[in-house]
Amino acid sequence: MSEPLIIETLDLGKSYGANPALRGLNLQVAKGSIHALLGKNGAGKTTLIKILLNMVSPDQGSACVFGLPANTPVDSLKIRRRLGFVSETKDLIQDMTVGEIIQFTAAFYPAWDQSQAELYRQRFDLPDDKRIKELSQGMRSKLSLLLVLCRHAELLILDEPTSGLDPAAAEEILQAIVSHVANENTTVLFSSHQIAEVEQIADHVTIIHQGTKAASGEIDALKQSYCRIQLVFAVEAPEISLHTPGIKRILRDGRTVTVISSQGSEQLSEEVSSLKPVSTRVFPMSLKDIFFEEVGKHE
Prior knowledge:
The chain is of the alpha/beta class. Helix content is 33%, strand content 30%.
């Protein structure tokens, strides 16, 4: 049985003046998953997150979180009581100390886990008496994450959680997210433009490009479904037309034809065999390959 959906959007659209940010975006995030929104800067990831949090209203379509409409005030309040959010800017009250903002935040959440907060404070090496304005960017990111991890939230929404961090600090943030999900019944939606960190911690990914969904699914299943088939002919390669579903692109170069498919190689291999190439080779595609295939084809 498939897990219930924590987030679902249907035909979601949003424009800022004449500039479309989202164009008919459909998204499904299953309970218990670590779901990454992967896309270049300006792809529409942050606009989607703002709609889920009722910070902006969509121009078309719908967005639901926990089965509740995200754009009504009463339901939005119910949604926000059940989630934790870290913005890309990591906005915190600058004159508070680490200890003060932990206590200040704890007062708003009945399920706050103070012992867990102290464990994370020590793990992240956050000085209790240091003011936030004196913290490095990496330390502010760790503090922002601490403030949402200790709420026992059902959903974490993280907008570029490792943006601007050095590799060591980014790794610490990612490992904290993974260990938290392993120990709590938590769903995570995080945005990123870093393919390596998506592969490291996410089990599902939605690639967003220019406000639309370019590809989506469980990461291992996506990598199994995409492939690159290279055909080599004895003479100059012929112009070919293929009818197998899932053909993304056909490239012809001298004696070689390369076919990119999003629906596996078995049926495609049978069709291209009729072209009588002297050799046929099937290559798997990494998430990076898939990303650039889906994003690059629009450029």
